[in-house]
């Protein structure tokens, strides 16, 4: 359907050009999403670059990013569309005497009085867009149903107006932290992509691209330490973004190569729970 | 190709993965865009369309390996790559000869002694040389596994035979020694740790190569269908708590978080969507202003959300040891979701362990403390539900109120002690709900010393909870 990309390789290169290092799986699924015209459900631990993926795809394809942040209590009027009630009132009052009722009635339910919200906006856009539905697991199961029509048919039905169909099929990314199981109906409509912590080599690459002025040696060391830490049984393993933060800190501190002491002192950037920090510090220094 | 995919999907379904028709069609469409020669991309294309749950990925991978193991240029079994290996070997010898000028006899791989293979393996692991590792895995399997066509032995047997000959544990130590030498002296503890992780990682990788190689040979021998059948393993949600291995336990632990959140959501939702409360007079009057003082739109008070209180009473005796461990983790997870949870554990005595879970963020530590510090043994350390319940009623019975939901966890194997089931009856009268979760298969209930039926009559329901799927079912029903 789409032809944004020629091949998987091109996806990778395109993403690399905007400083996003995709692995085989990520690039492959993005390529397929484009080809099949299907949304992608991206799942995985926090801070592994799920949202960033959508942003980078938008940047790489030169599309506009439309973002819908999900939260508990999200409803139709915030996700899809809303009638501009005040404007409608004004319209009615403006020609109280002249028009017949049916005319006004038809008139106040037209495009002019429709407020588009992210989903409708993505559908009705003329320019290329990437739609990002962020943290979809936060909405209630019932609200998920709102998304189904747009995800499978790329259209929105408005009772008063009829059905609005997409002029071009946007790329859609849904992200989820897996705090709850999403409904089968939603999953069935999407391609599924699990983004896990990167391999050591990829993490090193990421650090090298994201942190200017870092030496190859330090990046290597950082990636290796982070991998060791992730193997521990922690409450919250360090995410990629935390790794990058840590790398930045070390560069700012002018450290060329980490020793146990320095690692211990800066661990709190990598880990956010006191128990985790204590455990990691213990493992890194006394371990035999 | 179509046949292959159909067989593949059928096998996924056999393995328990829910693959719907639309997903199947998606997969068919997806593979048209991806060349089958690009095996990794092909795998991800199938995965993205067919597997919608990360915990199923492993099962998917296994089936994929079996069905597509003989495809793709680097995955053939054949003589073609032997020559590559020989070349590599010769190259290495060249280097060695230059290095220490000893001069070894050049020859093909098949004539190597085991020592030489070990030497090569060490080099490969030291440098992280993927190609050499793969080649060596092939060689090792060919040489050590002693595979015979048509022999009805599982892959694990061959794996064991191969690994026994390679001594990979000793290899780790040797590698560490080597890197110590390279540095010339002692490594700092941090470096030591990092090196060790690195090498274990590589060795792990090498083991996987061997496993894959064995699997390939078995598939070639027996055919994909038969092989897939022998490799079938229960999905994480079907793993029985009582017989879970360590790895499986890890997976279960991960799945617990979402489940307890769901439980909390279920209990909370009842409050939100429940019936409306009495008329809210002030609010009604306020809204009547927009109708010129006519109370056209009556407003109601929403019932104050009552915070659900939960009491978990769990058996942690030996007969349910595996389940108990899981129970404790469940309790820990529940505690994070509810504001008011009290947990009790018992064998023949009972003790409250709420504090152990509250005071620490580390579930392992909490479980450890429960196992070591809780005062749960009264006489002999054999389960006595009767006595435990009696003491529970005596000490904590007054805390059970109309808002409390009580969860009783255990197999109700009472060692023929008095059942004291009147306690459960009393609890039920005071509490909102009482549920019993039993980790035993239903067919074992009420056999031998199990008296779950007697207790069960006094509860709001007894549920068989042997695996995650059933636990989820229970949570669903709760709403």
UniProtKB/TrEMBL annotation, chain A:
Source organism per UniProt: freshwater metagenome
Descriptive protein name: Unannotated protein
SMART domains documented for this protein: AAA (SM00382)
Domain AAA+ ATPase span(s) in chain numbering: 36-201
Gene3D superfamilies membership: P-loop containing nucleotide triphosphate hydrolases
GO molecular function: ATP binding; ATP hydrolysis activity
Automatic annotation (TrEMBL), chain B:
Pfam families in alphabetical order: VWA_CoxE
InterPro entries xrefs: UCP010256, Uncharacterised_CoxE
Organism of this sequence: freshwater metagenome
Listed name of the protein: Unannotated protein
